[in-house]
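Figure 3 (text version): structure tokens given as input.
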């Protein structure tokens, strides 16, 4: 290509291997930085100093998608996609901001496959090394979030 090109790069010195250094996470932080925005609240309410929409107990997975599922049913459902990044199989927990009525492992088209174990707002999800895993949840609105 001709003309002027611009790019950004970062060097991240560290001890140990890339897994011990969380290199994938540092790369994502560099490539996808958070852009905070100050919003004036019309109600004057208070928010906690820290909060999360979704959390997981595993440091070797990346939450990459959280979206509404489009299907013909009237019940709302949400899809979550996680990516295992260190080559480790296992079971992880995903904590939602609402109680979960049902949860399924799904394919990339969000077709339901197998039902998953859940309790309150926590879903247990088996992950495969270096693979994407899609989870579909049906909220149980009107129930406590389990926290």
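Below: residues designed for each position.
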């Amino acid at each position: 290509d001709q003309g002027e090109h611009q790019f950004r790069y970062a060097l991240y010195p560290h001890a140990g291997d890339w897994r011990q250094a969380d290199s994938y996470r540092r790369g994502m932080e560099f490539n996808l930085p958070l852009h905070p925005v100050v919003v004036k609240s019309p109600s004057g309410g208070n928010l906690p100093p820290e909060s999360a929409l979704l959390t997981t107990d595993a440091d070797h997975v990346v939450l990459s998608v959280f979206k509404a599922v489009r299907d013909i049913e009237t019940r709302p459902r949400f899809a979550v996609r996680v990516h295992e990044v260190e080559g480790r199989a296992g079971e992880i927990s995903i904590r939602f901001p609402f109680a979960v009525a049902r949860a399924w492992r799904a394919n990339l088209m969000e077709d339901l496959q197998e039902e998953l174990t859940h309790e309150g707002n926590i879903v247990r999800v088996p992950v495969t090394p270096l693979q994407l895993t899609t989870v579909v949840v049906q909220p149980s609105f009107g129930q406590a979030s389990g926290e």
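Confidence is low (pLDDT under 50) at residues 143-147.
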